[in-house]
Design a protein that fits this description.
Belongs to the C/M/P thioester hydrolase family. InterPro entries: AB_hydrolase_fold (IPR029058), Acyl-CoA_thioEstase_long-chain (IPR016662), BAAT_C (IPR014940), Thio_Ohase/aa_AcTrfase (IPR006862), Thio_Ohase/BAAT_N (IPR042490). One of its GO terms (molecular function) is fatty acyl-CoA hydrolase activity. It comes from Cyprinus carpio (Common carp). This is Acyl-CoA thioesterase 19. This protein is of the alpha+beta class. The chain has 3 domains: 71 residues, no CATH class; 93 residues, Alpha/Beta hydrolase fold, catalytic domain (Rossmann fold), CATH 3.40.50.1820; 145 residues, Alpha/Beta hydrolase fold, catalytic domain (Rossmann fold, 3-Layer(aba) Sandwich), CATH 3.40.50.1820. Helix content is 15%, strand content 29%. The protein contains 5 helices and 20 strands. The strands form 7 sheets. Strands 7-8-10-9-13 form a 5-stranded mixed sheet, with helices on both faces. Strand 9, helix 1 and strand 10 form a beta-alpha-beta unit. The longest helix is centred in the last third of the chain and has 15 residues.
Length: 314
C-alpha cells in the first residue's frame, strides 16, 4: 500500500500564516499552517510525494519513492498588475490581456484589513478587470489610523469609469451582513460593535466567537442597508456554520426586506450547511480555526461539508 500526502511549499516568504486545526479527515488533532498568499506574482509550489507503506506522520524521516512538483499560479501570462495610489486611494488594479472592454470587479476583503490580491489576480486571469481595494487599517501621512466613509468607495467606482471596462452591475456578498449604521464611517461601525462587546463568546478552548456582536438582527432601519432600494442583482454566499459573522441570519433578513419591497427577484442566496466563514477560491487549504488580527477566532466549518461547497476550501 502507498499513501499520497500533499505538502504545500511556498517559494516566497511574503505570506501570512496562522495556526489552525487540521482536517477532521486526518482523524487526529494536529496543527497546520494556513497560507494567505500575498505575493501573487510567484506561484504556490505543491509537492506530491509517494511513500512505501501507509504513513500518517513522520514523513521527513522517510525517503519518498518518487516526488513531483506542481505550480499553482495566480496570474495568467500578460495580466497587468498596477498599484493605485491616487490621493487617499490605495489598491491594486489587475488588467487582463487584450483591448477590452472588460467586465469590472471592485474586490473588498473583510475585516482583517490590508490589501489582499489573490482573488483579484484570479479574476483578471479569467477576463475581469479587478481592483483589490485597501480600506481597513489605512494610515495617514502622519501615521494615524484613517477610518474611511462611503465616499472612499464612490471614488474608486469613479476611478474605474476612466478605464476601458464595463462597470459592475451586481453585488456579490460572501459571509457578510447588511447590519451597519447608514451613512457612517468605519469608526461608526466599530463603535456600534463595541456596544455589544459583552456578547463575545468563547468555545471550550477559549477561541473567540464573534457572530453574536450583530445579533439579534435589529428592527431599526437606520442600522441596516436599505435592501429595498437596491436595483441590481445581489448574490449572497453563506456558510451555515459561520462562527465569525451572522451570515445566515443576515441573509434571511435581507431576503425578507427585499420581499417586502418587491425586489426579491434580484436576490439569489447560496447557503451551504456545515460551511464556515472563510469562503475562498477553490483549492485553498481549509482550516477550522485561524488567527484574526491578534486574536484567535473560530471560523469553523466541518471539513468535509465545507470542502463540498463549490466555492469553498477555507
Amino acid at each position: 500500500k502507498t499513501t499520497l500526502p500533499m505538502m504545500l511549499k511556498e517559494n516566497s516568504t511574503n505570506q501570512r500564516a496562522t495556526m489552525s486545526k487540521s482536517h477532521q479527515t486526518c482523524k487526529r488533532s494536529i496543527y497546520t499552517t494556513k497560507f494567505r498568499k500575498n505575493n501573487v506574482q510567484t506561484p504556490v509550489k505543491v509537492t506530491f510525494s509517494v511513500y512505501e507503506g501507509h504513513l500518517a506522520r513522520g514523513f521527513k524521516h522517510h525517503i519518498p519513492l518518487t516526488s513531483a512538483t506542481a505550480e499553482r499560479w495566480y496570474l495568467a501570462p500578460e495580466v497587468q498588475r498596477v498599484e493605485v495610489t491616487e490621493g487617499e486611494m490605495k489598491g491594486t488594479l489587475f488588467i487582463p490581456p487584450g483591448s477590452g472592454p472588460f467586465p469590472a470587479v471592485l474586490d473588498l476583503w473583510g475585516g482583517q484589513g490590508g490589501r489582499v490580491e489573490y482573488r483579484s489576480a484570479l479574476l483578471a486571469s479569467r477576463g475581469y478587470v479587478s481592483l483589490a481595494l485597501e480600506y481597513i487599517g489605512i494610515l495617514t501621512a502622519e501615521g494615524k489610523l484613517h477610518h474611511v466613509d462611503n465616499t472612499y468607495f464612490e471614488v474608486h467606482v469613479c476611478y474605474t469609469t476612466t478605464k476601458n471596462i464595463i462597470l459592475p452591475r451586481c453585488v456579490v456578498c460572501t459571509s457578510g451582513s447588511h447590519i451597519m449604521p447608514l451613512k457612517g464611517s468605519l469608526a461608526d461601525v466599530y463603535a456600534a460593535l463595541q456596544q455589544n462587546v459583552d456578547k463575545i463568546r468563547y468555545d471550550e478552548k477559549m477561541r473567540i466567537i464573534w457572530r453574536d456582536l450583530l445579533l439579534p438582527v435589529p428592527d431599526d432601519p437606520s442600522k441596516k442597508v436599505k435592501m429595498g432600494e437596491i436595483k441590481c442583482p445581489v448574490l449572497l454566499i453563506v456558510g451555515e456554520d459561520d462562527q465569525n459573522w451572522p451570515a445566515s441570519e443576515s441573509a434571511a433578513d435581507m431576503k425578507k426586506m427585499m420581499e417586502e419591497a418587491g425586489n426579491s427577484h434580484l436576490l439569489t442566496v447560496l447557503s451551504y450547511p456545515g460551511t464556515g466563514h472563510l469562503i475562498e477560491p477553490p483549492y485553498s487549504p481549509h482550516v477550522r480555526f485561524s488567527d484574526f488580527k491578534l486574536l484567535e477566532a473560530k471560523t469553523k466549518g466541518e471539513s468535509l461539508m465545507h470542502l463540498a461547497s463549490p466555492y469553498v476550501t477555507s
